[in-house]
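Tutorial sheet, problem 5. The two components below are modelled jointly, 234 residues in total.
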Amino acid sequence: DGGITQSPKYLFRKEGQNVTLSCEQNLNHDAMYWYRQDPGQGLRLIYYSQIVNDFQKGDIAEGYSVSREKKESFPLTVTSAQKNPTAFYLCASSIGTGGAYGYTFGSGTRLTVV
Amino acid sequence: AQTVTQSQPEMSVQEAETVTLSCTYDTSESDYYLFWYKQPPSRQMILVIRQEAYKQQNATENRFSVNFQKAAKSFSLKISDSQLGDAAMYFCAYRSGKGNSGGSNYKLTFGKGTLLTVNP
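Model answer (structure tokens):
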């Protein structure tokens, strides 16, 4: 079945470490997105990519980095510059480049700083 | 920038009853898309319903329907015959209709969510 796979489901990071969250899709979608979810905050856009080798900052990109070397993959790195990384991270993709038909989401990664 | 407001942090409904979740949004555009997403305890986001702003007819999907009031910038979700499996966080989202010209026009902007409890 087609879908989006996020791994790991739970991730623990020590202070000062970089960690990478994986997102893979087999839907042949062009666009991919990373959102952060905090309690009471809804979903906030971190980065998005419309095509391979291109990506744009969203509303809260500071302390994060991404790459889009393959259409299927859009990994997110949470760097040590992100001061409050504990959150739930959701990856999504959409048909074409526009998202007019909505997104398909992965099941998320819970990141905790220890 | 567009904003989406869900004024009800929590709602509850009795099983088999009807409940309406509110959503308002702020935009200067005339062409856009609106969505309702459901996030159950598994935290998997599921698309419930989609509305295109140029269509006056309210979207429906089985027990889920919307009341789209364009002039009032309101997009409420009605759940009929509520079931225990409807218990979830519900998010309203907005997407600009400015096409795929790049930039952030096509991102989804989400409200903060409404937590729905269904009582047996």
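Marking note: Chain B touches chain A at residues 4, 9, 33, 35, 37, 42-47, 50, 91, 93, 95, 97, 99-100, 102-104, 106-108, 110-113 (CB under 8 Å). Full credit if you identified this.
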